[in-house]
Amino acid sequence: MSDSPTILICNDDSVDAPGLRCLIESVSGLGHIIAVAPSTPQSGKSSAITVDKPLRIARRPDIGQAEVYAVNGTPVDCVKLAMHTVLSGKKVAAVLSGINHGSNAGNCVIYSGTMGAAFEACMLGIPAIGFSLLHHSWEADFSQCGHFVRSITKAVIDKGLPKGICLNVNIPARCIPNGVKVVKAGEGYWTEEYVDYIDPQGRPFYLLTGRYIDTNPESDQTDSYWLDRNYVTVVPVRPDPTATDCLEAVGNIIGE
Amino acid sequence: MSDSPTILICNDDSVDAPGLRCLIESVSGLGHIIAVAPSTPQSGKSSAITVDKPLRIARRPDIGQAEVYAVNGTPVDCVKLAMHTVLSGKKVAAVLSGINHGSNAGNCVIYSGTMGAAFEACMLGIPAIGFSLLHHSWEADFSQCGHFVRSITKAVIDKGLPKGICLNVNIPARCIPNGVKVVKAGEGYWTEEYVDYIDPQGRPFYLLTGRYIDTNPESDQTDSYWLDRNYVTVVPVRPDPTATDCLEAVGNIIGE
Question: Would you say the pTM of this structure is higher than 0.95?
Answer without folding.
Answer: yes
